[in-house]
């Protein structure tokens, strides 16, 4: 349902205001707050695993310095069993830790996906007219999917590695503080390098995700049924393939740069850490030759074992820091959507109407898609449609006809005046009341890739098969559905392309009939029908409209002749109003439209003439 006169630019993320929360670590950590009990268990497992793992080098020292030299077989066996036991316990704790942390991480991702989807459901129609579908899909799929490693394992890895580093350093100090000082001399340099790498990868990741979103949008648009038809009929298949290849090529470059960012610097850290045992042996030897205190073989081996044990969590900790810097770019893109202002929201104390009579009033209604653009789309509209009455709105393309109809179900909110339903401003009604009260059948019919029955039942989930069939008969589409091989179980295809335009239009009318709303908005609902089908469906619509308030937007003037009142819009204002006969007698704008319509000219040409 694209407005007929929006002229809106493509959506871009709004600039961040000082009071808008950034994608910082505290805000990310708040996502885990509902699962703090499970995370506490993970913390206990991490602590226990770290304490058990650092016990092994001390057992090794006793084996080398006491059990073997003194020939104490019993002590040797006990110490060996202790080393085996620490390995078993560490593995068991690691499995339990991974299970709980992965579960928590997946729940956080589920919460994020649901929050973004719910936020988008609340966004006004204008947002979707300015935003490419592929961009929205990329935020939900690629960006949240790219955070999987961060939310499922990185947080736990951070705590685990930090605990392991602290416990190992304490154990190293207890064994030999001088060698510990030698081992930690280069630590500040390593931290500085990792922070540099993290910032570099964050910038590249932001560009990479934007490129992925652009490629997803290209795929969504060009590989849809409409895109394939357009590309082939215009002979642009090779051109579209070339455009996609260029988008993919840019992504290749960004992926390589992201993978290689800081790789040599991180490799240097790995080389230095791996060379540390040789440096420790050298330092111990120099200290001994210089007359310093001797270090026992057991202490030296145990210390080197601890130092090597420090290597894995230390490097992992630095890599985790880099990963978190990278993930901030993804969180930033998600938070951009979560922080979008919701222009159309339910009031704090919404009014709920149990029974709707159907009176619709437009009271001095003004509307502009861009208040700073100058001329409003609608200007000073005053119209009343009594319960059960019918209003027809006609005019040239861009006169504001569809926009006027969208104000009733609150697809947009007025910028001046008000629209009321049974005397209540629609902005004060709860969304359920509006959805039950107002049914919309537009020119652009959307059908899900599901069965005919499921598409109809979307309007009324608890509808029986008999009710579905009755609605289809009223819309003059039952015979066609029944003739299909699978009947009402037939899949309609992507966007309903298994059906003709007229058939889809009748399915949409059947869906609205099934919902049975007291107020009907027919936005050029019969424009896609041939004359014969239009007459059949028009009869069904007239039967449905009996006793219901109906607002019809139409180019074909033959569909609005019997309306209680006809309003002619011109540049967003009411140029003429009255019944069909009254407007013909006036010989003005409407009469000219009727003459041109009778001459068989295209509706758009007739409207402009």
Automatic annotation (TrEMBL):
Pfam families given in the database record: ABC_membrane (PF00664), ABC_tran (PF00005)
Lipid bilayer topology: Multi-pass membrane protein
Ranges where the ABC transmembrane type-1 domain occurs: 40-326
Annotated ranges, domain ABC transporter: 360-596
SUPFAM superfamilies: ABC transporter transmembrane region, P-loop containing nucleoside triphosphate hydrolases
Segments of this protein annotated with the region Disordered: 1-24
UniProt feature, compositional bias: Pro residues: 11-24
Major localization listed first in the record, in broad terms: membrane
Subcellular location: Cell membrane
Name this protein carries in UniProt: ABC transporter ATP-binding protein
Native source organism of the sequence: Streptomyces sanyensis
């Amino acid at each position: 349902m694209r407005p007929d006169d929006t002229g809106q630019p493509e959506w871009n993320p709004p600039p961040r205001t000082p009071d808008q929360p950034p994608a910082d670590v505290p805000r990310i950590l708040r996502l885990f707050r509902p699962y703090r009990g499970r995370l506490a268990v993970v913390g206990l497992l991490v602590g226990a695993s770290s304490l058990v793992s650092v016990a092994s080098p001390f057992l090794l020292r006793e084996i080398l310095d006491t059990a073997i030299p003194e020939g104490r077989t019993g002590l040797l066996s006990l110490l060996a069993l202790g080393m085996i036991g620490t390995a078993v316990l560490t593995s068991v704790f690691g499995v339990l830790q991974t299970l709980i942390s992965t579960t928590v991480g997946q729940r956080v991702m589920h919460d994020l996906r649901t929050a973004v989807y719910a936020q988008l459901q609340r966004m006004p129609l204008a947002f979707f007219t300015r935003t490419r579908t592929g961009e929205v899909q990329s935020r939900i799929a690629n960006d949240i999917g790219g955070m999987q490693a961060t939310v499922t394992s990185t947080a736990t890895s951070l705590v685990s590695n930090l605990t392991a580093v602290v416990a190992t350093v304490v154990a190293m100090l207890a064994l030999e503080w001088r060698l510990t000082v030698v081992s930690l001399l280069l630590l500040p340099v390593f931290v500085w390098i990792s922070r540099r790498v993290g910032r570099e990868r964050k910038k590249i990741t932001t560009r990479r995700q934007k490129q992925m979103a652009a490629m997803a949008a290209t795929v969504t648009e060009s590989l849809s049924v409409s895109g394939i038809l357009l590309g082939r009929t215009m002979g642009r298949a090779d051109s579209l393939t070339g455009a996609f290849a260029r988008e993919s090529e840019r992504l290749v470059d960004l992926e390589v740069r992201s993978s290689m960012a800081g790789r040599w610097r991180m490799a240097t850290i790995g080389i230095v850490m791996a060379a540390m045992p040789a440096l420790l042996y050298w330092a111990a030897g120099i200290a001994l030759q210089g007359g310093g205190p001797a270090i026992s073989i057991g202490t030296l081996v145990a210390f080197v074992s601890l130092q090597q044990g420090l290597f894995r969590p230390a490097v992992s900790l630095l890599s985790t820091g880099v990963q978190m810097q990278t993930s901030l770019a993804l969180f930033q893109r998600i938070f951009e959507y979560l922080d979008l202002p919701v222009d159309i929201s339910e009031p704090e104390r919404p009014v709920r109407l149990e029974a709707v009579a159907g009176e619709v009033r437009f009271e001095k209604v003004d509307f502009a898609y861009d208040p700073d653009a100058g001329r409003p789309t609608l200007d000073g509209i005053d119209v009343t449609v009594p319960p059960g009455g019918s209003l027809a709105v006609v005019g040239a393309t861009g006169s504001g006809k569809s926009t006027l109809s969208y104000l009733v179900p609150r697809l947009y909110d007025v910028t001046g005046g008000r629209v009321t339903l049974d005397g209540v401003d629609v902005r004060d009604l709860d969304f359920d009341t509006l959805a039950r009260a107002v049914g919309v059948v537009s020119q652009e019919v959307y059908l899900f890739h599901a069965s005919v029955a499921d598409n109809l039942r979307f309007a009324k989930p608890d509808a029986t098969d008999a009710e579905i069939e009755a609605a289809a008969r009223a819309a003059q589409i039952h015979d066609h559905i029944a003739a299909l091989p699978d009947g009402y179980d037939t899949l309609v295809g992507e966007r309903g392309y298994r059906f003709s335009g007229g058939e889809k239009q009748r399915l949409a009318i059947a869906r609205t009939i099934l919902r049975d709303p007291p107020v009907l908005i027919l936005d050029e609902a019969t424009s896609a029908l041939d004359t014969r089908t239009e007459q059949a469906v028009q009869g069904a619509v007239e039967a449905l409209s009996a006793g219901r308030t109906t607002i019809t937007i139409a180019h074909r003037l033959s569909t609005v002749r019997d309306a209680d009142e006809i309003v002619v819009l011109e540049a967003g204002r009411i140029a003429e109003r009255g019944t069909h006969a009254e407007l013909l007698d006036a010989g003005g704008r409407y009469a000219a439209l009727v003459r041109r319509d009778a001459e068989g000219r295209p509706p758009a040409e007739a409207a402009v003439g």
